[in-house]
Amino acid sequence: MKLTDKVHVVTALAPDSDALSGTKATDIISLKDYDSALFILTIGVGATGTTAITVAASDDASGTTTEDIAFTYRRVEDTTSSDIPGDRTTATASGFTTTAGSNQKYLIEVQSQDLPEGKPFVKLDLVEAVDSPVDAGIEVLLMGARYSGDTKTTAIA
After folding, report:
1. What's the CA gap between 60 and 48, in Å, rounded?
2. CA distance 125 to 25
3. Which of 39, 61, 94, 115 is least surrounded, with the fewest CB atoms within 10 Å of its CB?
4. What is the pTM of this model?
5. DSSP letter at 156?
């Protein structure tokens, strides 16, 4: 089995020159058919801008009824000189705030078994904490498909 049969890749927030401005949310992702989601926030150029990040679980694809949940994340401090993530950190339902600077990566992990009962949909909520443009984008790797193979179904709610 090939890796692309085991992992489903979703663009949750398209790369943009000021992607994290104001208040944003990623696409809502269904974990009904997956064991876990790895949101990968890639920051290119950024000076002083920071963003508060929370993970919200929802009971449906509209995301109107959500509940912020605890999650884990790791940070790669300088992607120009390292590909090694730092220590795994557990964030409460209040989330965490990114560090100002360029060339960073945040690996945000959500396990379907940790979602509240009846809430299999997830998204990242992003609120600009310090207003300064940040080039960024978010991809999601969905893993542990309940049904694997060449044919995939959409996970974007």
Report:
1. 36
2. 4
3. 94
4. 0.93
5. B
Q: Model confidence over 2-21: pLDDT tens digits?
A: 777 788 899 999 999 999 99
Of 126, 141, 143, 142, residue with least CA distance to 43 = 126
Dihedral Cα 12, 153, 143, 139, nearest 10 deg: -20
pLDDT tops 70 at residue 48: yes
Show me where the domains of the chain are located: 13-143
In this structure, are strands 23-25 and 7-16 parallel, antiparallel, or unpaired? unpaired
Domain 13-143 architecture: Sandwich (2.60)
Q: What type of residue is 143? A: M
Question: CA nearest 43: which of 132, 110, 143?
Answer: 132
Alpha carbons 30 and 62: distance in angstroms, whole number: 11
Dump pLDDT digits (tens) for 71-104: 999 999 988 898 999 999 999 999 999 999 999 9
Residues making up the chain, counted from first to last: 157
Q: Kindly give, in sequence order, each residue whose CB lies less than 8 Å from that of residue 15, ignoring residues fewer than 6 positions away.
A: 42, 44, 135, 136, 137
Residues above pLDDT 70, as percent of the chain: 92
